[in-house]
User: Fold these one by one.
Assistant:
Number 1:
Amino acid sequence: MDQLMEILTEVNADVDFETCDTLIDDGILDSFDIVSIVGELNDTFDIDITPADIVPENFNSAEAMWDMIQRLQEL
């Protein structure tokens, strides 16, 4: 989870990723942020995030992203 938080902070240091759970719903992260995050997560965690995975439920919070990472690592 620490690696994830580092990635998120690098993408947008102004966001409180620890507590925010509406990153997509409230427009805090834009499409460029998501593309950057997906690329970093794929490389860092050796996973393959597909277009089907890029839905608000997977990116609204750091916890949701972490759950997605763990789920994809099990495949």
Note: The helical segments are 2-11, 31-45, 56-59, 62-73.
Number 2:
Amino acid sequence: MAIENVEAPMVGKILRVEVAAGNQIAEGDPICVIESMKMENFIFAPVSGTIKELKVAPHQVVQAYDVVAVIEY
């Protein structure tokens, strides 16, 4: 099995987390929603697999390139 770290593309606040640890996801599925500059942006899964770990929660502020989730595939 391989590991994929999913990173925040920008500075912002996590509004919603769409998955939980242990969930099976497909490439392109939404992982969470981040608000930046008054716009909502989805962070999508880059690969299909299982959410091994979530590193964010709603209302948490993240920096660009912070890891938001770890996917095992």
Note: Residues 3-72 form a domain with the OB fold (Dihydrolipoamide Acetyltransferase, E2P) fold (CATH 2.40.50.100).
Number 3:
Amino acid sequence: MLSDATAKWLVETHTVMQVVCLRASIMVCCLGGFLALSGRHEVLRPGDLKMQLTRGSFACCSQYLFIFGLSYVQLAEAAAAGYLGPIIMTALAPVILGERVGIHRWTAVLLGFAGMLIMLRPSTDSIAWAMLLPASAAVFGALRDLVTRKMRGTGHPVTVLLYSNMIIAAVGLPFLFVSREPFSLPQIGLLVLSSALIGAAHLMHIQAFRLEEASVLAPFRYSGIIWGVLFGFLIWGELPDRWVVAGAAVVIASGLYIYWREQRTAKLTVD
């Protein structure tokens, strides 16, 4: 969430394409340089190239859409919309992972979408409809995570992170020099910080999805709303409105219910 806060700050003076592209480029240079200098050239091999490209494409769409969303909505609002991700993962798990989803989980999925509609509060308000950007990012993020789960055992986490960011950087490269103003030294420092933070977070994210079931990991993502509200208030004086709070509560409740059902089912199976 701190990485997203720095990105939101940077897009106030620079384009989204520039910020996301440069953040990914810094990560690619650091990871590639470290692997080359350390002699771990085997990690540079992509392994399953098709899966790497698929995951990288989903990650690319997720990052650009989310940061575009931050240009229009509050940090906490974008974070709340992002909680649609675990719900989407549950809905798509039968298609991508071949998992069985029962009536209870489908009910939770429908409740999650209802919560998203509450946050959107259908109207002509452009800010409300801008919530579709982080919500769409959550969809692509869910697809990215499902592919990550499917890739377990087929490549090093650093390799996965490296190739995904190569795709993200390549997409933004044509827009890199379309600038309203050059980056100052403090802004370059923020870019490096944002890159380091999101790189570390994604490495842990990739490794977690390789080691554990997606439904077990999903609840831990909800702690982000606390940081989203905190950073949004401290930096921009933002507080989410009642519609976002109500919708986020429904989405989080549905996600936690899915988690509870998974744990209960797993316990009954073991017993």
Note: The chain has one domain: 2-270.
